[in-house]
Amino acid sequence: MANITKKVSWSSRGDDSALTGEGTPLLNGTEIPKPSRQVSMSLDYDNIENQLFLEEERRMSHMGFRCLEISRWVICGLIGILTGLIACFIDIMVEKLAGYKYQVIKENIEKFTEVGGLSISLILWAVLNCAFVLVGGVMVAFFEPIAAGSGIPQIKCYLNGVKIPRVVRLKTLVVKVIGVICSVAGGLAVGKEGPMIHSGAVVAAGVSQGRSTSLKRDFKMFEYFRRDTEKRDFVSAGAAAGVSAAFGAPVGGVLFSLEEGASFWNQMLTWRIFFASMISTFTLNFFLSIYHGKPGDLSNPGLINFGRFESDSVAYYYYEIPLFMCMGALGGLLGALFNSLNYWLTIFRIRYVHRPCLQVIEALLVAAVTAAVSFTMIYFSNDCQPLGPEHNEEYPLQLFCADGEYNAMATAFFNTPERSVRSLFHNQPGSYNPLTLGLFTLTYFFLACWTYGLAVSAGVFIPSLLIGAAWGRLCGILLASFTPTSPIWADPGKYALIGAAAQLGGIVRMTLSLTVIMVEATGNVTYGLPIMLVLMIAKIVGDYFQEGLYDIHIKLQSVPFLHWEAPATSHWLTAREVMSSPVTCFNRIEKVGTIVDVLSNTSTNHNGFPVVVQPAKLCGLILRSQLIVLLKHKVFVELARSRLSQRKLQLKDFRDAYPRFPPIQSIHVSQDERECMMDLTEFMNPTPYTVPQDTSLPRVFKLFRALGLRHLVVADDVNRVIGLVTRKDLARYHLGKHGLEELQLAQT
Amino acid sequence: MANITKKVSWSSRGDDSALTGEGTPLLNGTEIPKPSRQVSMSLDYDNIENQLFLEEERRMSHMGFRCLEISRWVICGLIGILTGLIACFIDIMVEKLAGYKYQVIKENIEKFTEVGGLSISLILWAVLNCAFVLVGGVMVAFFEPIAAGSGIPQIKCYLNGVKIPRVVRLKTLVVKVIGVICSVAGGLAVGKEGPMIHSGAVVAAGVSQGRSTSLKRDFKMFEYFRRDTEKRDFVSAGAAAGVSAAFGAPVGGVLFSLEEGASFWNQMLTWRIFFASMISTFTLNFFLSIYHGKPGDLSNPGLINFGRFESDSVAYYYYEIPLFMCMGALGGLLGALFNSLNYWLTIFRIRYVHRPCLQVIEALLVAAVTAAVSFTMIYFSNDCQPLGPEHNEEYPLQLFCADGEYNAMATAFFNTPERSVRSLFHNQPGSYNPLTLGLFTLTYFFLACWTYGLAVSAGVFIPSLLIGAAWGRLCGILLASFTPTSPIWADPGKYALIGAAAQLGGIVRMTLSLTVIMVEATGNVTYGLPIMLVLMIAKIVGDYFQEGLYDIHIKLQSVPFLHWEAPATSHWLTAREVMSSPVTCFNRIEKVGTIVDVLSNTSTNHNGFPVVVQPAKLCGLILRSQLIVLLKHKVFVELARSRLSQRKLQLKDFRDAYPRFPPIQSIHVSQDERECMMDLTEFMNPTPYTVPQDTSLPRVFKLFRALGLRHLVVADDVNRVIGLVTRKDLARYHLGKHGLEELQLAQT
């Protein structure tokens, strides 16, 4: 029966909650120092329903609900507009700054090409890059470390129900936006698309609460939405709006949100998410079209625009599908390699590069090396291409080429990555020679791998696409050279597209949403099937060797992330084996001193407590946060004189405190007050979900996923509390290569 | 507190189940005779988990689960291929038959135009139409009435968890396919797209079970999937494949399935559904491209192809958006009118046209009238258009036009509806004059309204699109005529598109999936926002007056359909008020006679029974179907000598009986056997979900929706059974215009 093959002991059978020390999670048998500031917290989607809440709901009229519904739509519209504006701002800033930079360097190079002394150009390039990266790196490393990277793992966690602190704050947004502008303008091998998803999520979390705690402004709006369930729904909409703005893919955005976040599909919610996505693309397009001097031209969706693949000119044939599938496998392999390298690099960073100044120095080093490598590649390349009349290079570098020609390597390196991707997709056959592409793939692969995880705001989507497009185009060229007479493989652009999909799929392992994003970004439905097959194969091959990049980073933070289904072979586990036991319970009328002691006790860092009537019979569930608000407002009943609480607490008090509940240490309770009693009846959830102790793990898991639970009380056959299953209890079980494994999660 | 405004008594607080008589449901205060053969049954997505099942799961290895997973993919691939082939078959047959018909009539008309005597042509046309419709009508009315209509309401019910008998049988599929070919070739105002969804679902239900009960063949494959949960998942995939084949919209198909069916979003399932959709479009394209003599050209997705809207040539400007929104409102109004008319017509039909021969006669009448009206319209139209060099009319009718011209009315009427839609979208400006379009809209509106609900297989998508495209194009022409100098409104094609979306949205009230389907079918992402806005407005306006067409038809069948969320103002209702009580319970070891009596008793037509140990303490839940299998196999324990059951029942026995469990009447139990005992321990679900009696209705509802429950036991604080909430108990509550209403559902 006991087919757990690897069982690592865990020190605290703690809850899904609260404060963490410097843990030492074990992953793949390697001990990793815990990254600092990893205070994760679960979100609560269920246990809000107490008497106060029910009373409010019951008082609310039909019209009241309709007003709420309209507010939700208004908020989603606002989310879309703001996200679109942010995308627009980032796009214009990057274009301006990068344009300025490339212009300066281009002039400098042109000046020195003839007279010699190109090393000065190299230094200029490196210095400019470093200057940008310095600004971005300092902001991230010193002010808001959570803004580093693409933010997608953090948003995935948030939507899954694990809240990483400060992830949806205004400060994070500001740092993220400036950071991403700096890193893209600084010439790093990064994209600005991933951070858009994070930005959208922050916008959503802010707008939906009708206040900003950072700015200390409360607009007294949308107070109803100040709770985890509602906020999560809006954050999904924000993430979708972000994807939509980044890729011009509103449907892809919706699917991304659903793939990552939805446990319970709700039609109206999905429809609102779609609305936010649509508005976001529309806003971005509207303002960009004005900026580009073509107001009203709304046909240019997204920050990255792959350019349209016309089905007439770039058709594929069904016998090419096996070739595409081989490329998918290759993408999976390269993706797994990328992820493994990045995994070891990240562990190295956690261990040795955890001080902010070191992080900034590393970022500067990467910026300088990127400039140097790019320059070297361009310098030694002798791939000269004629500058055609319809060339669309923005900064064609002539360098050592003849007049009327330009350096092809420079189109790949001397450009923002977005433009390079588009060139690889759409430049005419013959624009690149195979050696250029091979060298470019090689260098860019390692640069991108080194860059991801730096203390800068940056996404991995575009670099992945770029690497894939490069080797994909290379494949196309090679295939064409084998059969020089056949016109079928004449256009290497489609191979670039397939390669890009394969590489991206191999790295991030997204499936459905990525297919739709790619289809929307290429504006061509016919490529749907090959892209889907390629992503599928890339995922299968990649998963064999290594997890997806985001999953790796989530795992390294050892958060209790719940996957879609319980591990397949976990049917023999029951709630009894999984639950935490014994559980700290409170009486319905409990002594204040007891409550304070339990909450202060760091060994019982639970977030939810069953409420019982003697003898141990379950009558409700109350949350740590609720108890803290109660203590703060001193809702005590004096001994002997019951039913004389000092003031009546309202739902508003809980909402005002949301989401930054003070720690228990900050609440002073006098010795007299400790002797008072607290009546929890009104504040607890009177009907928590329970399961009998024989319930199988998949059944418990399904309940958690489908209802967004955080705590599930295990009761015996006379309804006495015998245990509590938390999110972390479930997240421990994991299907490894050799069957069911039990992971140790940090004592968070 | 009691704010139920309308409470209609219901005669039997029955279960979500079993046999029905000729009920008299009250809807909108009107008494409607119950349509015959409306034996609806709930599907069970949860209570399968008994000891036998758990044992099997526990025995199964990691590899076993992987094999299952691979089988699921294989099945989805098969579903895609078969659905694609069926779509291909329908398409080719319709094209052949309709082509033949129009050719004959065209020749006949041409012959008689000059010599006079066009009434002969009219008769020929009417006779040909009637001949086709006769075949289709007889098949449907006499052999399989469930194959009538588009099948979408039935599939919606199935995915929602209500099974309408015979809806996924092979016979239904055959009748559906032949029926739809006949009705489209017969010139009715119908489409072949809706039935594709039903066909896909039937294919899925068949393939996934690895056997055909109709053909009495058991391939001994996929036995694991012989249960409601798994079958439902495959049926979603089938429906998606159907949408995908019909509209060339794989993503739209996935979203359709999710919108209608998913309560619990599962990533792998969605991904498989997407796979089935992709394969289905691909198969259809592959074979159609071969049929059309252009093998390998895969760029022509779907049965209906709206033709590509090039963003360059058919751009819209943002100041057109308010106009689009007005059209959306108009679509909503017209849709509500359509639905109201159809509602009254359907009630009329249920009351007076319920005999098969009458149904066939009505269908013939409609066919003849359609031919007559079309002919009259063409005859009296004097809208002659020059026959350009690039004209794409397949059957241009010259009639009384000058040489080199053709009758424009004939392009709309004398054609399959799919082609007419495309002509309205893409013909050059000036191809139609406003009067033609106005008359066409008017007549086609009433024809389509009359046709929907006939005893023929037919969809309402295409007629709706056609009506909308006609008045949309009319709007475009009128707008252009107001501002003759402005080139903006030069192309009425985009207005036709918007009108089509508005009309379809106003009738069916689908939202997200319809947007995506329209976007995919037009191949243009930029129209996403306007289409979405239009659909939204159409839905809001339409909902104000009347429900969606499918919802009307679902409601008329009075099935316990669960919507997405509990009615907003239902927080004051608790499980205690909602539940059925008292409940018939069984003891864990129960007398056979008692079981037989309970099952035979028509007044307790429950489908699930709590199992208790004395005194009334809940220990499990067992289903009617399981009891029937147990009785059939006579798994009895003789009195006095316990633990001596004649044979050990296995999971296989339950699977073999699935899904057509015999009625209790067919099982003979002798008087001796009645005295035996039955031990239910192994067969019951030992851990059914329970709720306390104070749980609010929204909470109960959420549990039902999220977990796909059918029975929920209400237990008191010592775990004694005090009631049972069934799907029907929840479906009764309904948010009307004046607050919460309690509907009467038929005694099904």
UniProtKB/TrEMBL annotation, chains A, B:
> One GO molecular function term?
chloride:proton antiporter activity
Places the protein is found: Membrane
One GO cellular component this record assigns the protein to is: lysosomal membrane
Q: What are the transmembrane regions?
A: 73-94, 122-143, 173-191, 234-257, 269-291, 321-345, 357-380, 435-455, 461-483, 495-519, 525-545
Q: What is this protein called?
A: Chloride channel protein
Question: Family per UniProt?
Answer: Belongs to the chloride channel (TC 2.A.49) family.
> Where does the record place Polar residues bias?
1-12
**From what superkingdom does this record's organism come?**
Eukaryota
> Which SMART domains does this one have?
CBS
Where's it mainly located? membrane
The family database entries (PROSITE patterns) matched by this protein are listed as:
CBS
Residue ranges for the region (Disordered) are 1-25
Q: Which PANTHER family does this one have?
A: CHLORIDE CHANNEL PROTEIN CLC FAMILY MEMBER, H(+)_CL(-) EXCHANGE TRANSPORTER 7
**Domain CBS, first and last residues per copy:** 684-742
